[in-house]
Amino acid sequence: LRADRPLATLDAALRLGFDAPSGRGELLWGTFSQIGPLRWSYLLSVSTTQPLTVQLDDMGAAAGEKFLLWDVWRDPNATSLQEVAAGAGVVVPQSPATTEKTVDTGSYQVLAPILASGWSFLEARKTVPASRRRFSEVTSSSDGFSVSVRGATRETVVLWALAPPGKGAETTGGRRVVGVTCQGGECSGVDCDVEMRLTCGAAGCTCG
């Protein structure tokens, strides 16, 4: 499972280098997964010397699109998500200090789009949690969403559905993480795929 393109240096990192007295740019890379009109963005920083602000435009976000920001390495269970308003910036934290000369520190952040219903989703504990190899055909209803999930024969796929505020017990970011397991059935042929569908709404989430 991978993103649509390899990681590449962001224009924002180059601009920071032009503005810095030392002329040194920050080590900041990005890539994305595009599923229909929706874009999940991935932001990797290493040895940043200060907090940095990256605009959603730098990540190729569509006008008017809102996101949930997941700081993966600091919050592996997605218990403290932040909402990023349309047109706003994302703060990349300064890299933690280290006394090890051969060790670099940094951050890995994921931006997940918020659907019209207020929901979002990710594949749990994956470096690329919204690969086009895994997901397709996302539809949003008045109170939920549905997405096609692709897996190998008998593969177990663990997903996180991120409920909008007010839909049950909430995380510190105002959203409830609903864990959903999709269990693939049997398929025949070489490298065959099993198609499943995740559906979430007011009554909860199912996958089958």
Overview of this protein structure:
With 208 residues, this protein is mostly beta strands. It is 4% helix and 43% strand. It contains one helix and 15 strands. The protein has one helix at 11-19; strands at residues 8-9, 27-35, 38-46, 52-55, 67-71, 82-84, 89-92, 106-113, 120-123, 135-140, 145-151, 156-163, 176-183, 194-201, 204-207. The chain has a six-stranded antiparallel beta sheet. Strands 10-11-14-15 form a four-stranded antiparallel beta sheet, with no helix packed on it.
What is shown here, in short?
The protein has one helix and 15 strands. It is mainly beta and 208 residues long. The model has no long low-confidence stretch (mean pLDDT 88).
Individual helix count: 1
The proportion of residues in beta strands is: 35-45%
Query: How many strands appear in the DSSP assignment?
Result: 15
Low-pLDDT windows of residues: none
Rg is 18 Å
The proportion of residues forming helix, as a percent range, comes to under 10%
Largest sheet features: 6 strands, antiparallel
Order of helices and strands: EHEEEEEEEEEEEEEE
Overall, the morphology is globular
User: How much is the average pLDDT?
Assistant: 88
Between the first and last Cα atoms, what is the distance in angstroms?
21 Å
* SSE-based structural type: mainly beta
Strand order of the largest sheet: 1-2-3-8-5-6
